[in-house]
TrEMBL record:
InterPro entries: ADH-like_C (IPR013149), ADH-like_N (IPR013154), ADH_Zn_CS (IPR002328), GroES-like_sf (IPR011032), NAD(P)-bd_dom_sf (IPR036291), Zn_alcohol_dh (IPR050129). It comes from Ramlibacter aurantiacus. The lineage of its organism: Bacteria, Pseudomonadati, Pseudomonadota, Betaproteobacteria, Burkholderiales. Residues 189-326 form the Alcohol dehydrogenase-like C-terminal domain. GO terms for molecular function: oxidoreductase activity; zinc ion binding. Residues 27-144 form the Alcohol dehydrogenase-like N-terminal domain. This is Alcohol dehydrogenase catalytic domain-containing protein.
Length: 368
């Protein structure tokens, strides 16, 4: 068999096209993975629209889990048949950023099956821009992680999102009191953060999202942590202009939140959550919100606030997730709410963008 079925992104196309494409030849230190599950996220199509997919047509899909089917030269034969995930982050491995656990800032930074963010020649991305929304995926062997036996392919594919939550939690550097606000708490990143918060210093949570019904559905993910819910639908029609979110957060914690992990994709919620920080508190933003936050710099200085932006996880973050999954301390199967065959990939993307029903993590199964 010299071809495979793949979902392809084309310049200017609003949907992916299912096509038969050649199976890529393997070079030294490369493996071919038969894809069992590939994660998807709504941001993928937004980045495609913005022109951050530099090689088109291309096969998207940066979250890949499956079985190693074949190997190139200089690869240990023991890899064949192993259950693995593919770490999607491409970087040079030699710069100061790469040497200090900040690969996402490397000038060569890009992701397999996803967008390019670096400013360099992006030589690795030129070879590995095709991702996991296909029957097979090619990757460097150095980017493979063996999946622990208890971990399903579906969860293995979503380790990247779980690790993004780990990165955000690390950036929050919570003090002992551990008062943490999570915005957009019923989305992919929000639910991942709720699951992981107790391992990274959280002692109390406030979860913010549009709907009380959806917030009640995720409350139990926090385990034994005390949880307060803030449905935006209950703040009043004028909450966006009347600082309704800030007021409600201050009612819950009058002295303020130690940290806000902000995943709002748009709107004034980011600034209002920031205004509810305690003295010395930290806002970590990972939502791509284009709305401006207007604060006098003196207010930030006097409040000793830290404002941190972070755009992706690193290998140390995925290692932490895999360790928690391997020991059973972290249970994540319930995060996988939707599964689609490759033939319905566009339906999956539409459902993710629409969000008419609760949808935490979604995977495509090429073999289904």
């Amino acid at each position: 068999m010299n071809t495979m079925l793949a979902a392809r992104a084309h310049q200017g196309a609003a949907e992916l096209r299912l096509e038969q494409v050649p199976i890529a030849e393997l070079g030294p230190r490369e493996v071919r993975v038969r894809v069992a599950a590939a994660g998807i996220a709504p941001g993928m199509m937004k980045l495609l629209e913005k022109g951050l997919f530099k090689h088109l047509p291309s096969t998207p899909g940066h979250e890949i889990a499956g079985v190693v089917e074949s190997i190139g030269s200089d690869v240990d034969p023991a890899w064949v048949g192993r259950r693995v995930r593919v770490h999607p982050m491409l970087s040079c491995g030699e710069c100061d950023y790469c040497r200090t656990d900040r690969q996402q800032m490397c000038s060569e930074c890009a992701m397999i099956g996803h967008a390019a963010f670096g400013t360099g020649p992006l030589a690795l991305y030129a070879r590995y821009h095709d991702g996991g929304l296909a029957e097979f995926a090619r990757a460097p062997v150095d980017l493979l992680d063996v999946l622990p036996d208890p971990v399903s392919f579906e969860v293995g594919a979503k380790v990247h999102d779980l690790a993004n939550a780990v990165r955000a939690l690390k950036c929050s550097a919570l003090p002992a009191s551990g008062r943490l606000v999570v915005t957009a708490a019923t989305g992919t990143m929000g639910t991942a953060t709720i699951k992981l918060a107790r391992f990274f210093g959280a002692r109390e949570l406030v979860l913010v999202a549009r709907s009380r019904e959806r917030l009640e559905a995720v409350r139990g993910m926090a385990g034994e942590l005390p949880v307060s819910l803030v449905p935006l639908e209950e703040l009043g029609a004028d909450w966006e202009t009347a600082q309704g979110l800030t007021r409600r957060l201050r009612e819950i914690w009058p002295s303020g939140a130690d940290g806000v992990l902000d995943y709002f994709p748009s709107g004034p919620g980011t600034g209002q959550a920031m205004a509810a920080l305690a003295l010395g508190g930290t806002l970590v933003h990972m939502g791509g919100n284009p709305s401006p936050v207007t604060w006098p710099i003196a207010r930030i200085m006097q409040s000793c606030w830290r404002i941190v932006g972070t755009r992706a996880c690193t290998r140390s973050d995925t290692d932490a997730v895999l360790q928690l999954l391997a020991t059973g301390e972290l249970q994540a199967e319930d995060l996988i709410t939707h599964r689609f065959p490759l033939s319905r990939v566009n339906a999956a993307l539409t459902a993710m963008m629409d969000r008419s029903e609760p949808m935490w993590m979604t995977v495509v199964q090429p073999g289904a």
